[in-house]
């Protein structure tokens, strides 16, 4: 039986106004190095 992949965490950078994959473990934007990011849930609009 195949295992399903874990859902990918999605983050939004409020400075870049874009969805990003943050740098870990600091959780900063890879574009602007800002920490003003937010985890986006499936229910977020």
TrEMBL record:
It comes from the Eukaryota. GO terms for molecular function: ubiquitin protein ligase activity; zinc ion binding. Its EC number is 2.3.2.27. Keywords: Metal-binding, Transferase, Ubl conjugation pathway, Zinc, Zinc-finger. It catalyses: S-ubiquitinyl-[E2 ubiquitin-conjugating enzyme]-L-cysteine + [acceptor protein]-L-lysine = [E2 ubiquitin-conjugating enzyme]-L-cysteine + N(6)-ubiquitinyl-[acceptor protein]-L-lysine. Pfam families: Zn_ribbon_19. Residues 9-40 form the E3 ubiquitin-protein ligase RNF126-like zinc-ribbon domain. This is RING-type E3 ubiquitin transferase. The lineage of its organism: Eukaryota, Metazoa, Chordata, Craniata, Vertebrata.
């Amino acid at each position: 039986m195949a295992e399903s992949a874990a859902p990918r965490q999605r983050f939004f950078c409020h400075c870049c106004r874009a969805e990003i994959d943050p740098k870990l473990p600091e959780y900063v934007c890879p574009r602007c190095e800002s920490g003003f990011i937010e985890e986006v849930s499936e229910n977020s609009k």
